[in-house]
């Protein structure tokens, strides 16, 4: 059942040596393409990185060497207005994509495509992991795989045969996510401490990498300082000016 498959997701960071075939990759990408897309723009591209040297360099740049070198397939999930620029040229029109709206459309399209790809892969028994670390060196990675103006990597996605099982990490309770008619922040005073207890118990009891930490501690430590402050400048070079 699809819902049970979705609820069983856990990130996989250790894979067996088996590489996905071209036919398997094509099937996964084709399934992913049937995700919803804003105004049918399909503002995405996927770079399948198969060259061992490029994968090694990609691992270094994203600070995820083990995954990039060990996965059965490595994908760069990219926002893409370059193809739309070509579409405009065929019609004698100049495509404008430097507005904030265009950036949101592309990132949303990529997210929907990637999640479809992830679900398709997991339905085949593969494990997956998103690699936000590609944004650590977006400019260098763009150069590594030849991404032109209008195209940038949003995240990586590794796929492969899991080398070991992983426990499912508890998510926030539905009540913390679902608001009816009006946004209700008062409930966080009760729900977040309860969730902290559940997460702390999960970390202490899981089979590997045990630790004692709560969700609010994690979030406070992560979000108390800015990250990847170069991104606005890198995106501007790609043509995304936030107008």
TrEMBL record:
Pfam family, one: Nitroreductase
Gene expressing this chain: nfrA1
Assigned protein family: Belongs to the flavin oxidoreductase frp family.
Name of protein: FMN reductase (NADPH)
SUPFAM superfamilies to which the protein is assigned, alphabetical: FMN-dependent nitroreductase-like
Organism lineage: Bacteria, Bacillati, Bacillota, Bacilli, Bacillales
Keywords: Flavoprotein, FMN, NADP, Oxidoreductase
Residue ranges constituting the Nitroreductase domain according to the UniProt record: 7-160
Species whose genome carries this gene: Planococcus massiliensis
GO molecular function: oxidoreductase activity
Alphabetical list of CDD domains matching this protein: NfsA-like
């Amino acid at each position: 059942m699809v819902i049970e498959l979705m609820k069983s997701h856990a990130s996989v960071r250790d894979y067996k040596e088996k590489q996905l075939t071209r036919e398997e990759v094509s099937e996964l990408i084709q399934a992913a393409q049937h995700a919803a897309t804003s105004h049918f723009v399909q503002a995405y591209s996927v770079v399948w990185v198969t060259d061992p040297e490029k994968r090694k360099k990609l691992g270094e740049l994203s600070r995820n060497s083990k995954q990039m070198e060990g996965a059965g397939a490595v994908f760069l999930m990219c926002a893409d207005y370059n193809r739309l620029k070509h579409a405009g040229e065929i019609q004698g029109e100049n495509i404008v994509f430097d507005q904030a709206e265009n950036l949101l459309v592309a990132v949303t399209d990529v997210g929907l495509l990637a999640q479809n790809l992830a679900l398709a892969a997991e339905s085949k028994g593969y494990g997956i992991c998103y690699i936000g670390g590609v944004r650590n060196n977006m400019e260098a990675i763009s150069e590594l795989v030849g991404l032109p103006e209008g195209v940038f990597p949003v995240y990586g996605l590794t796929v492969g045969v899991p080398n070991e099982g992983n426990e499912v990490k508890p998510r926030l309770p539905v009540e913390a996510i679902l608001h009816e008619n009006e946004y209700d922040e008062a409930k966080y005073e009760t729900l977040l401490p309860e969730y902290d207890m559940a997460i702390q118990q999960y970390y202490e009891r899981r089979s590997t990498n045990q630790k004692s930490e709560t969700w609010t501690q994690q979030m406070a430590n992560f979000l108390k300082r800015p990250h990847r402050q170069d991104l606005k400048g890198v995106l501007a070079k790609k043509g995304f000016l936030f107008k």
